[in-house]
């Protein structure tokens, strides 16, 4: 690169020198004679350096002066532009939001089905449609099995009922009532079926006729500071053995709000029972329960007393009773978590009307007494988790006087007497419940009730199992198929059998595990088919000594809504 630069510099110098001399000669003599080149010597210094003076640098930035602000008046022009009128008649459609239609109600339905054990299943429900003035309806039921688990027709059962109900809604007042009749037929089939002589089922039949009437009124929707519900109830029962019982009961529930955080509640009950079989007995009960409640932020306190009087004479029943009641509730998470504890007591009305619904194989001429819960110490909790899971738990220690038990009669082991513990019966109770609900499609639940009985004079808590539990689930598949299932568990219990020769035997009942299933398939809003399977495991278990239950029981049928 340096050699090329040197050669180029030399060529430029030669050309410049030649041009200069040529111009000088032309100006003096021209190209004529005598115009000759003179000898000259050209010296080229190839090592010469061309040096330029150093330039000074300016480090200052160019400053551009901003324009001077001046008044700027902007003029806006508003022009009213109008479209030319059109002679075409345009059809305009206004779009509106469609009103939600109310789901059509079918206030009536009929169900009919058939099953094994010669079972006939009939149900009907009739009710008025939507109304803000009144609500009224009726339901009928007839379920019968011509054969049973022992000696076919000798263990047949029939349950029939018809009920009427109605309510009238007025300004701040609701008046209602119920009227019902039921007929239940059973047989005392708890004998040994291996006999030489057949048993005539008419001689072992039992029939209960039940009538119940109720009237009530309340102002719970009035918004008044004093709220009440007052009612009267009449229950009547008779059976095939000329037993009659009438219970006339009055009930009042009232509360008065003193202010936003405190109030007074008063509950009162009066029951008059007239019982007649081989003897005539009158039994009265009166209770009044005043209490004061106060809310202190998340804490709610209730203090009161339960005062009760009974006319019972069985087992030297205590006539007059006073039970102090205290309850403290803490709600650390409003509407989602409640923790409570308290003490109390109560006198509980017991009638043959309810006892025969629990055990229809009672012997004639039994004596009934009210249960006296002298002391109860309890604590528990209620919780809601994410509005889907609901939990309930309760633990209590209780003592009772005149708690009833069922034991086989000494004169006839197919029937049951009411026996009472001579003294105080202590009970340790634990109750737990968990329910999962998801958008009315899936519902799963678990319930468990454990009772540990400590009797004073009885050798066992006859026919009172310690543990009863159930697991249930429902599934609604697109409002087309509905599944229901329930699994029962009932622990074993005891009963003492007295033989004709004077000997006796303590027998233990079965531990019960029972699975029931039900499925409904909806063809339309009106027609539905159903299938029910009871005791799917097929165990002929005994809830009461000598009384086995049915094995698998299937019922299928249809229902019609209108």
UniProtKB/TrEMBL annotation:
Question: Any idea where this protein resides?
Answer: Cell outer membrane
The protein's UniProt keywords, in alphabetical order, are: Cell outer membrane, Membrane, Signal
Leader sequence range is 1-24
Q: Which InterPro entries match?
A: Beta-barrel_TonB_sf
Say which domain of life the source belongs to.
Bacteria
- Give the protein's recorded name: TonB dependent receptor
Q: Taxonomic classification, please? A: Bacteria, Pseudomonadati, Bacteroidota, Cytophagia, Cytophagales
